[in-house]
Amino acid sequence: MRNEKTTEEIALGIRRRVYEHSMRNNGGYLSQACSAGEQLAWLYNEALNLGEPTLPMVPKPFEGVPSPNNPEYHTGAGYNGPATPDYDRLFIAPAHYALVAYATLIEVGRMAPEGLDMFNKDGSSVEMIGAEHSPGMEVHNGTLGIGLSTAAGLAYGRKLRGDTGKTWVFMSDGEVQEGQTWEAVQACAFHNIEVKAIMDVNDQQCDGAMDSVMEVGDIRTKFINFGAHCVEVDGHDLTAIRQASEENHEGKPLIILARTNPFHAMSILEERFPRLHYVRFKSEDERARMNVSIAKDLGVDPVDYSH
Amino acid sequence: MVEMVSRPYASAFEKFAAGNPDILCLSADLTSSCEIDGFRDRHPDQFLSMGMAEQNMMSFAGGLGLAGYRPFIHTFGVFMYRRPYDQLMASIAYPRRKVRLMGFLPGVTTPGGMTHQSIEDISVMRSIPNMTILETGDATEVESICEAADSIDGPVWCRVLRGSVPRLFDTPIKVGEMRELSTGDDILVVTSGICTEEAMRARAALKKAGLSIRHLHLHTIKPFDSKALLDQIGSVKHGVITLENHVTEGGVGSLVAETMADAGVGKRLIRLGLKDTYAHGGSRPYLMRYYGLDALALVRGVEDLMGQTFDITEDDLDAARVDDVHSLVKAEAL
To answer: Considering only CA atoms, which of A61, A135, A137 is closest in space to residue A94?
Structure first.
């Protein structure tokens, strides 16, 4: 698809949509839009080679889970285009970034804005924790730590088939606390799987700052020691991300550590540090203050959420 | 004398998988223990060593399934569901990947004790939507398990016997069917896996005692043809006995109990197997005797059902097969 906006514009658009949605719904995964806006905008607008969407712009309702009795079942991967050998594939490993991922699909013209109105509504496929039938998703990644392994398996299979398309994973840094992440990296190194990952290193997890929950140390050194090619960049610096993605990682997985600020472009969220995983406004006053402050940061009018 | 077949899986898997580019052989550091070392050496392009890292292996296999492959995972059954249960659910069962889970050393067929004995796997797998469950009870079923499993449009859990395996049947597994090993009208005995051989050992003595035993062997545990079982139950007078190499909760005993309860069958049911207990390490014959999974346990179950004793002792049962304990293929080896 032809790029109609710059990646910077898309990152801003993602934040505006997530902000507006969270204001109207008295909360949301706001901080993830702050940290990951550039990464997801860059993936969809620059890095990924994707075909035209194969699913309707306005998402269909939930149509049942995979079962022998549900032959029409399909995943939400069609929003990323067809799964042909030449096109790239993307897994959103932390499925709670779904709101940000859906906003990205809208910004790049792969889903209608109405799709976000269906977010977390009963009977909708646009689920709060991205399910494999949710727009842009191909597998369930709600249990953190399984995404890289799945991508590695797919990438290995595609390599055997001679596919030219790449396999990408968007990851979150909390996943390095899971042993499976390290099992996956060692397997990629051992089998020379050139899967590509970009990780939102925002130092945050559900309970708060990662250092207060479980210190993970120097993860770049750990990834390198496990056999990955690992590059650390400022996750809000698109030029740095572009350069990192072009590094040679022959025979190894590429892990781009995108160091990010969990209240980037929404400075008032710092008031809520270190509980940023899901921002639910504590009072009408807080909601009103944040509405005005974030609107100003994002260059839009405050949301009239009374209607 | 029962024919003993040496390492039937080794040759059967190689025959089935070699040269099929859509089949990949995965192993988690138990390659010779799962009899696929020859396949690894002769078909390295179809073999993936995944190391002792089952969580990654399960999700990785899900990714291979997404890429259109049909991975055959080889390890001890117990290592394929206890630690990586979440990955089994999210990466394999939910999306109906065509992953063939070849679980070796079912139940008490290993002296490895609690950590090695999959005693509740059938219970777990029966409760997983989209899962198919097959269990082998003899060499012919081991020889046909790959083709049977690979015929399923979705994930398949297989209980696979290894080493020296008796040949009891002369026809391959037909998924969804059950084997009628004897017809009778007093008691229906339902067995699976290694317990079928035990029930066959008791057959002559029970006949001599005047009992007419109807004996069914199950290789397909899920999906299950409950109507066929109900027809069998309807043709016996006294009741049903199940015998399984598994805990009595959630396995074949439960399957039969649920079938009877759902249909309102008012006959007695005696479920034999591991009775809400872990096992410990020991030889298979010792464990089957100690935990009541053998021919003698079945005889005692029949006595319980009939409310009388038949004076049948171990000496009256057909000779237990004697494995060559020094054989390279001995079933008890780790």
So the answer is: A137
